[in-house]
Amino acid sequence: MIEFKQVTKTYDDEDYIALNDINLEIKKGEFVSLVGPSGAGKSTLMRMLTKESLPTFGQVIVDGVDLADLDKSDIPMLRRKIGMVFQDFKLLSNKTAFENVAFALEVSGVGEEEIAEDVPQLLSIVGLADKANHFPSQMSGGERQRLAIARALIHRPKIILADEPTGNLDLVNSYDVLKLLWKINELGTTIILATHDREIVNTVGRRVITIEKGAIVRDQQGAGRYII
After folding, report:
1. Would you give the end-to-end CA distance of the chain in angstroms?
2. Which residues in 32-68 are b (16+ Cβ under 10 Å) and which e?
């Protein structure tokens, strides 16, 4: 599903190395926790999967496609395969929960009939069927994050990238979001969870990849743990 081959990313005339000789393979249907301190390179690695950031050297392959060979016109199709969930939700404050999810379909040219069918289904999946007409300001942090996940699922992506999705949440809401990501993974979607929350990682109990100073220093297959 995902492969990094000798990927290096440098900035400022190669004075700063964000990623250093990354070799990584993530298989279809895996749930991977990507851990490490702030500035370790987690977000840079994830941005490469959507071609928001390009490697200085090496190859990034997603779903069998070398992203270096991907034309600019094909990038939107790549990004429909990948759902993004962020720490700060990135919801539209002037739109209701229904409208936030529907907007992602509208910009893709989906018709009103399909929107009317798909959006309620997604809101139900994330436990927000009764919040369809609520604005983000009327929702709790956990509800807003679940709404963000619903939006990320709208194109039925093969991959979900969750970048610190529980960073602004309390413990109870963090576990609600985690359980939802588990559910999505069980349906076959590949999940990459970037976090520095040791308790969340250890609760997930799946593969753990540790990045420090742009390099992979540990790759624990199976029931990995966040080791500091």
Report:
1. 29
2. bbbbbeeebbbbbbbbbbbbebebeebebbbeeeebe
- Sort 77 into a burial class: Cβ within 10 Å, 0-12 / 13-18 / 19+: exposed
- Provide the H-helix boundaries in 12-74: 42-49
Residue 148 is given by DSSP the state H
Burial state string for 207-225 with b = 16 or more CB within 10 A and e = fewer than 16: bbbbbeebbbeeebeeebe
For residue 119, give the 3-state DSSP assignment: helix
Written as six digits, the tokens of 53 are: 């950031």
Residue 82 backbone class (left: φ over 0; alpha: ψ -120 to 50; beta: rest): beta
Tokens read off for 58: 């090496």
Residue 193 β-bridge partners: 33, 162
**pLDDT recorded at residue 224:** 63
Query: How is the chain split into domains, by residue range?
Result: 93-155
pLDDT value at position 10? 93
| pLDDT tens digits for range 134-189 | 999 999 999 999 999 999 998 889 999 999 888 888 888 888 889 899 999 998 99
Task: Output the pTM of the full model.
Answer: 0.88
Residues 6 or more apart whose CB falls under 8 angstroms from that of 56 comprise 8, 9, 10, 14
Name the token pair of 24. 């990584």
> What was the pLDDT predicted at 226?
63
Q: Which helix (H) or strand (E) holds 201?
A: helix 198-204
